């Protein structure tokens, strides 16, 4: 099978029809016990699947919306659809030691994916109808008990990376991640805190950049978060051409081209 497609009748009704029919199909597979290794992670979260952006050879008149349809998050790997998320690193500069300190959480051992691994300060998937910014602000309050107004006033959008991911059982789940930095006051007046009701994180700890690098080399981080942290170390000049013999290769690896549709606006 090279590809699958919606019928002409479904396509004529637009993205809501496509969304309805594909989720009906996936729901039936779940009820029948098919693809249990994937669908047991059912989240009841709808993730957007994008149309290709218009080009001179692809008229925008043929595309009524950047979003082609939405699909249950757990089912993304069944079709090789891209997962879009956002990752934030909260940090501060310690005046006493002149070190940059990062707030690093450890994922709950009850998490279905990467339990007990180290992570970026805050992260989350972008559900249908949300933007990267609205998602990361919401996740900051839910996962780290950070004040939404403080986050909105101090957050910085710093990039976009790709992650050509494949699961241990062979399912493809390519990822694209919006990156954010959040510089916190050096006096410790603003710190991430565990949200017991959320249950995503076991605890937060401070790490200097050398400790972060050592844990990266030891494979202690969730893979997508490891990429975001490497990007942070590069952007803040803790990893440079002088310190890493494979610097150029690492930089290119963070933004590998994947011929998949990504968010766009007319």
Automatic annotation (TrEMBL):
PANTHER family hit by this protein: THIAMIN PYROPHOSPHOKINASE (PTHR13622), THIAMIN PYROPHOSPHOKINASE 1 (PTHR13622:SF8)
GO terms for MF: 8-oxo-dGDP phosphatase activity
Protein name: Nudix hydrolase domain-containing protein
One Pfam family from the record: NUDIX
Domain Nudix hydrolase stretches: 79-229
CDD domains: NUDIX_Tnr3_like
SUPFAM superfamilies referenced in this protein's UniProt entry, alphabetically: Nudix (SSF55811)
